[in-house]
From TrEMBL:
Residues 31-179 form the DUF5683 domain. Pfam families: DUF5683. It comes from the Bacteria. This is DUF5683 domain-containing protein. InterPro entries: DUF5683. The lineage of its organism: Bacteria, Pseudomonadati, Bacteroidota, Flavobacteriia, Flavobacteriales.
Length: 179
C-alpha cells in the first residue's frame, strides 16, 4: 500500500501597501505676494489682513497715526514761530512783551524755534513714509513666506555637549537634516 499525502498550500494575498508622500503639495498662488503688496499700497494694513495676519494692522495704523500726529503738531508750531517772526519783522506783532510764550523770545530764538520744529516736522514726514513703505514690504515678504515649505526634517535645536579635552559642558546649536 502506498501512502500518499497531498499538501495543499493556499496563498493569501497580502494587502497592497501604498506609500504616501510625506510632503504635501499645496497649490501655490504665485500672485499672492504681489496682491498683498498692492493691497498694502492701496490701503495700509490691507495686505496684512489679506495674509491673515490681523494683529499687524493695528500696529501699522498706530504707527501711521502717531507719525502723522507729530507731523501736524510740529508743522503747526513751526507756522506759529514763523508767523510771529514775520510779524516782528513787519512791526505788526500781536504779542506784547508780557506774553508768557513769545514775549521773552528774541528774533534769534524765534529762528531757532523755526529750525527745530521744521526739522521735527520733516523727520515725522520721513518716519510716516518709512512706515508706509515698511507696511508694503512686510505684506510682500509675509506672503512669500506663507508659501515656504517648512519640513519637519530640518531642525535647529539647542545642544549641550561635553568637551573632549577638559570634559566641560558646552552649549551650542545644532542644525539637523534627516533623510
Amino acid at each position: 500500500m502506498f501512502f500518499t499525502s497531498q499538501t495543499v498550500l493556499s496563498q493569501t494575498e497580502a494587502p497592497l501597501l501604498i506609500a504616501k508622500d510625506s510632503v504635501k503639495s499645496d497649490k501655490i498662488d504665485v500672485l499672492a505676494p504681489a496682491k498683498a503688496a498692492f493691497y498694502s499700497a492701496l490701503v495700509p494694513g490691507l495686505g496684512q489682513i489679506y495674509n491673515k495676519r490681523y494683529w499687524k494692522a493695528p500696529i501699522i495704523y498706530a504707527g501711521l497715526a502717531t507719525s502723522i500726529y507729530f507731523y501736524v503738531d510740529n508743522n503747526k508750531k513751526y507756522q506759529e514761530f514763523r508767523n510771529e517772526y514775520k510779524d516782528r519783522l513787519n512791526g505788526t506783532s500781536h504779542y506784547q512783551d508780557d506774553d508768557p510764550y513769545y514775549g521773552p523770545l528774541d528774533n534769534n530764538r524765534l529762528i531757532e524755534g523755526q529750525k527745530f520744529y521744521r526739522r521735527n516736522r520733516d523727520l515725522s514726514a520721513f518716519i510716516t513714509i518709512g512706515i508706509y513703505i515698511l507696511n508694503i514690504v512686510d505684506a510682500n515678504v509675509d506672503a512669500h513666506l506663507m508659501q515656504f515649505n517648512v519640513n519637519e526634517n530640518l531642525t535647529v535645536r539647542p545642544d549641550i555637549y561635553q568637551n573632549e579635552i577638559n570634559y566641560k559642558q558646552n552649549v551650542g546649536l545644532t542644525l539637523n537634516y534627516q533623510f
